[in-house]
Amino acid sequence: MFPKKTDYDLVIVGGGLSGLAAAVAAGEKHLTTLVLEKGRTLGGDGNYVEGAMGVDSAMQKEAGITIDKTQLLQDELNYSHYEASAPHLKKLIDASGATIDWLQSLGVSFTKVGPQGKSWPTIHTFEGGGHAAIEKLKAKADEFGIEFVTSVSAQRLMQSNGHISGLVIKNEATGQYRELTAPNVLLATGGYVDNPELVKKRTPFVGCLLTVSDGKSTGDGMQLAWAAGAQHYSMGAIQYGGGAIYDRQTPPFVHMMSQLGAAATQEAILWVNERGERFVNEDVNDNMCHAGSAILTQSRVFSIFDQTAVDHLAKVGLYKIVGNSPVSPDTLDKLPEEIEADLGKHAPYLTKADSIDELASKLGLAKLPATLARYNALVGTGADTDFGKNRDYLTAVADGPFYAVELGVGMACALGGIRVNDNNEVLNDYGYAVPRLFAAGNDAAGMLVGDTYAVTLPGSTAGYAAFSGRNAVANM
Ligand SMILES: Cc1cc2nc3c(=O)[nH]c(=O)nc-3n(C[C@H](O)[C@H](O)[C@H](O)COP(=O)(O)OP(=O)(O)OC[C@H]3O[C@@H](n4cnc5c(N)ncnc54)[C@H](O)[C@@H]3O)c2cc1C
Q1: What biological-process terms (Gene Ontology) are attached (predicted)?
Q2: Of 49, 125, 324, best ligand 1 pocket probe by most atoms within 8 Å of the beta carbon
C-alpha cells in the first residue's frame, strides 16, 4: 500500500535496525516521518542479530567492566590498517554506551554483556534476539505516530538545486510508481551482501560464499546514493561468519543451528584443501572473520574428523568453546543422528569412509593420507610446529570411520560503498555533503572497517545501526 501522504519531513529508506532506531529518534524530534520497507515485514537482518556493541553502558558499569577507549580505538585502527575513519569510530565508541542505555529506556532488554571469542567485552545480547528489539522499536515509533509502509521500495532520489527534494517509490505488489517530497532522506537499506555482482568487487570467490542474510540487502542504498552524486567509497569488508556447511542444494540458514556445522566449523579438528593438505591453524575460528578469510585462500576446504571425535563431542562435550556459533551446548548430543540423517539422504557435503585412503579416494584428496600422518605426529608431540594451533586443540584423527564435511564461508553482511561525515551525511567525491542525504547502518558502516570486518569489537554493526540512525536524525 502506498503512503498516506506525499510529503514528509523525513523519509527513511529501509525498516531494519538502523531505520527503526532513526524512526524513534525522529519521533522524539517530532518530525513527520515515513519509513519505506521493500520487504513484506519489518526488521531486515536486525531480526537475526544476537547483540549490539556498547562501551561504558549502565550494564557494563554494573558488571564492573571497564574499557580503555583510547586503546580500543587504537586497536581497531590498527586492525583496519588505518582504513577506518578515526573520528567516526571514536564518535561511535564514545556514544555506544549511551546508545545501549537509550535502547533500554525504550524497552529493549539485554540478557548479558561480555566478549565474543577473543575480543573486547562489548556485545550486549538482546533478550529474545534482534526480533524482540525490532518489535520494541516499532511499538515506540507507533507511539510517536511514525508511518510505515511495507512492500514499497525506494527507486530513485530526486534533487532540486543539488539538494535532495524527495524520491520515487514503487509499490512492489502492483508495480506502480509515485513521487514523494521530503527535505531529508535517510538511506538505511542494510548494505549489499545479497548482491553477488557487488560482492564480487570485494572478492572473486563468490561461489563458496553463503549469505545468511534475509536476501534483501541488495545494495539499493549505495546505488541510490551513487546516482545522486555520492562517492563510491571503500567496499572493504564483509562480515564473514567463518566456515559454514557448503550445501549447494539448501539455503545456508537451514544449517545455522546444525551440530554437524558446529563440529565441522567451530571445533575445527583438521581442515584440508582441495589437495588434502592442511593450510592454517584451525583455531583461527576464534575470530570468525579471520576463519572466513583463511578458508577463502583455498579453492575447496574440507573439515575432517573421526568416530572418536563424534563420540567425544556427543557424549563428553566440546574440545573447544564454540565461541561464535549459535550452537553452544555442553555436548553436541544430536551429532550422531544428524550425521545418519545426512548420510541417509546422500547430502553431497558429507562423506564417510572406513579408512583414510578410502576418504581420500572418494574426494580426490591425494595428499590426505600423508597430511594425516603428519598431523597425528604433531598431535603426538603436543606442538603444531607447522601452523601453531594451540596445543589444547590438537586432537588426533585416527579411528575410523572417518568423516569429511565440505566448507564454504558464511556471510552476514557487507559494509561500505557510501562515505559519510560525522553527522552521517553522505559525501560526494570532493568530501562535501550531498545536501540532506543521510546514510546509516550497514550502508554507512564502511567507515568503521578496513578490508576485514572487526569481530574484535563484537556487536559493532548492530551497535552502529542504532547509533548512526539516531545520529543522522540528530543532525537533520
Ligand atoms: C544472521 C545474522 C546475524 C547477525 N548478527 C549480528 C550481531 O549479533 N551483531 C551485529 O552487530 N551484527 C549482526 N548482524 C549484522 C546485521 O546486518 C546488522 O547488525 C544490522 O541488521 C544492520 O542494520 P541495517 O539497518 O543496516 O540493515 P537491516 O537490519 O538489514 O535493514 C535494512 C532494511 O532495508 C530494507 N531495504 C533494502 N533496500 C530497500 C529499498 N530499496 N527500499 C526500501 N527498503 C529497502 C531491507 O528490506 C531491510 O529490511 C547479523 C546479520 C545476520 C544476517
Answers
A1: steroid metabolic process
A2: 49
